[in-house]
# Entry
Amino acid sequence: MAELLRITPYDNVAVALRALTAGESVTVGGLTLTLKTDVPAGHKVALEDLKKDAHVIKYGYPIGYAKEDIPAGSHVHVHNLHTLLSGELEYTWQPTPPKKLRREGATFMGYPRKLGRAGIRNELWIIPTVGCVNDIARELEREAQSLVGGGVERVCAFTHPYGCSQMGDDQENTRQVLANLAKHPNAGGVLLLGLGCENSGVAIIQEHMGQWDHDRVRTLICQQTENEFEDAMALLRELAERMRGEKRVPCPASELVVGLKCGGSDGFSGITANPTIGGFSDRLIAMGGTTILTEVPEMFGAETILMSRCEDRATFDKTVNLINCFKRYFEEHHQTIYENPSPGNKAGGISTLEDKALGCTQKSGFAPVADVLAYAQPVTTPGLNLLSAPGNDLVAATGLAASGAQLVLFSTGRGTPFACPVPTVKISSNSPLAAKKPHWIDFDAGRLLSAGMSLDELAEELCSLVLAVASGREVNAERRGFHDLAIFKTGVTL
# Structure
């Protein structure tokens, strides 16, 4: 097995494929180095002498500058590497959008809906409009498990602490997320559960829903009924009975919307898992489907790659606004935009935000950028979409679901058990993680290195897995009953 991987011929660092020890001689691309320091697996090694202030190149792009002279064969990490990032920038449109690919469409077994795309699940959802009724929602979820079966695949309550004491855009975010989830295609039936005195009550959420299937949604306001539990259970039973006769039927893959997210990344994420997801994204888009890339702060340093792939000037302008508005959000809260990567990322070998971003954006593949979405804005344009949301795993994944994703692909090098409102497929960047956490991980992209598989082979296998999940195959988090909701909090709490 090779010891080092040089990702592009332009790189002046390589990634250690195993833990390396000072004094070892290693070879990469015909170059032999004697290591000056120990280098953990996933971390970077200088391939040449780097002078102080020199750019460190990985993925063919700068990921920072050397804080000191770095001899060839040395460990390159946070102790001797610093970000190049700063505040808002001006960008020039230099389009090089790739050709749109076409591929024969596949099918999945899904649930057609009267309005919108097909669902990949037929679940009964309880959605509180305000955190004050969370405990009632949880109690209903426990009691309603008796309704599962015969077309009702699962009962889920999506509790959250919001819906009141909010203002402005912050309040609108909550309303739009709840409204979009109430009409999500994965929900065969929805109970909107309100208190009665909140800012974002049932009627307001319904206004934000626009067109919706009235057969699939019921409402209950707890302050207006004598026994909210009994009345809510009656509504849930009514919805469940209506769902009993619904069956999976063949649906075109063009109806799929898949969210792309990573978290707990390591030095292998941008080499194995994220490029595999990118290969899947290109394949789905070639079949007429849709993918959504989010976590805007983790685009900082790689945004020009996405900008160059925008289909037109209007999309480019929206992408520039997406990036600079998120930088402004940091600055308005008196925070530096490069306060990233996380401790776990650094332990895994990621040194700067550019390092993380260039790996993160591999999930987008090579397709043109078709549209840019505000937080909680429903997706309408097939192809690759960019969504405004933070890097936080659950907040971003909830944003993907609220924008219409029926499932989320989540790559990780460190591992995580979480799940969002839709099936969350965990993809490991390394095989040891997949072996250690088989009850978390659904797909091992580390086989690119551990088993010698190609990216094409892995992307094809992932495509087959996605179609199987869309057809009803449960992911690990679903088998364990995990489902969570986290809404992006952006404003004042009254």
About this structure: The first strand starts at residue 4 and ends at 5. The chain has 14 helices and 22 strands. The mean pLDDT is 95.
